[in-house]
Here is the input.
Amino acid sequence: MKRLFGGLILLGLVSSLWAALPGQPARSSYIGKRFMAFEMNNGPSYKWKKLEDGGSLQWWRSDLAGCCVGRWESGQGNRCELLIVLDPKKVIRQIRILEDGMACGRALR
Here is the structure.
């Protein structure tokens, strides 16, 4: 009974964390894959925060990654900013769109 109750509390905490995150949830083929695959295709994140459970939040923006990848066109309305939620094993659990531009389509495929 204690395990069930503990599991329900943990589920509630995770759900409340995700509900409190800014932006809209995004669909992407990267969900369930390692963050390294996203970085290799789109460039590195520009900011991160470690979570208490060992996971992390990664902020990624197309215009900042363009210096490293060289495939993003600059221009107003084209910038994309994402908040990526990782578990302790660096697997992407959720992606949220903070700024939706044309570059988001390429980054999220």
Q: What stands out?
A: The mean pLDDT is 80. The chain has four helices and five strands. The first strand starts at residue 24 and ends at 25. The two ends are 42 Å apart (CA to CA).
